[in-house]
Amino acid sequence: MALSLSDYRRYGRQMILDGFGLPGQLKLCNASVVVVGAGGLGCPALQYLGSSGIGRIGIIDHDHVELSNLQRQILHNEATVGMHKAQSAAIALKRINSDLRIDAITEALTPENALSLLEPYDIILDCTDNPPTRYLLSDTAVVLGKPLVSGAAQKFEGQLCVYNLGESGPCYRCLFPKPPAPEHAGTCEEMGILGAVTGIIGNLQALETIKILTGLHDTKPTLTLFSALNVPQFRSIKLRSRKPSCPACGVEGQKIGTISEIDYIQFCGGATPDWESLGLAESNLEYRIRVKDLKNAIDTKGPMHLIDVRPRIEFEICHLAESIHVPLNELVANPSPFLPPDLDTPTYIVCRLGNDSQIAAGALRGLQTHGIVKDVIGGLRAWSKDVDPQFPVY
Fold first, then answer.
1. Catalytic positions, please?
2. Where do the annotations place Zn(2+) binding (predicted)?
3. 85 is in an annotated binding site
4. Based on CB atoms within 10 Å of each CB, which residue in 234, 300, 339, 367 is the most buried?
5. DSSP strands (E only) in the chain
6. Is 61 assigned to a binding site?
């Protein structure tokens, strides 16, 4: 593929770099990459990959754009809320460069289709946020013999690593042979994320990809750690070569088998809990109260003890005027000070979704032999939906 006259003007600023030149640009134009996940990491990675002149870009994401995405997923906008993220990202890239060849794939990546979807591309970018997909992508990259540029970000921190690069580059299983428990694999919704952090990691993923394609990468396995609040912000850890005993890329011991036959969700301990659904479960109603019933209890202005067990930072975002704040860890560590002086006063516990409140209510009931201690079903999310639509949802 030759460059057009407009390409010389578009890509001239990188073509004049030592070690890059016209050969580097031609390598990019003849290369193909696939980005799995068009979210916080995928959007900045895609933006710079598309701007650099990659010849073919695949975007795999079956999710839809939501308003909460716009804080960090910079290719999406208010007009594309509700659209598939892959399609929204493709539209944004086409606005940058109408000549880009883009494959917008809106089906979920699964063990059954991973090999066929990823095989046409030279490099795979893991811009996802869940362990089952990370292991699936790593195993697939090993089978296909392709580099995997993997990023992760949460709160104020992120990390970057290129797996399966060169003859001895380790795979994801080499570093993380055992996945975290599902309840410990927090999402951005649960843990929070600073949007600029995903931008930094996503841009670094694009940079690593460009270095590999143009021959500028030294191929040494390195894990890069980033923390927005630390000084220095970046730290690099040299990694060992692939483990001979690794069940995916090693040469010893038992192998993992055929990818299409692996249950990656089961391997990772089951599906990540749907905390919102769990918080809404109306089991043990003897110990739980619906938000409308809580509203009636507040309106009657009778004696009540309402405790909000969210973290302080969330309590300061919004809270019910009638509530007092006691962080969950503080209440569970020593519940007795937080019982009402009159044990006959009903005590209600509220949190964001209705899960932490169940733990707190159980701790108080363990001390109290009479009276009412109940947690609020669905928490403040349910309060906003069913009682007060003006109450903020975050």
1. 188, 351
2. 171, 174, 246, 249
3. yes
4. 339
5. 32-36, 56-60, 101-105, 123-126, 148-154, 157-163, 222-227, 234-238, 288-289, 305-308, 324-325, 347-350, 373-376
6. yes
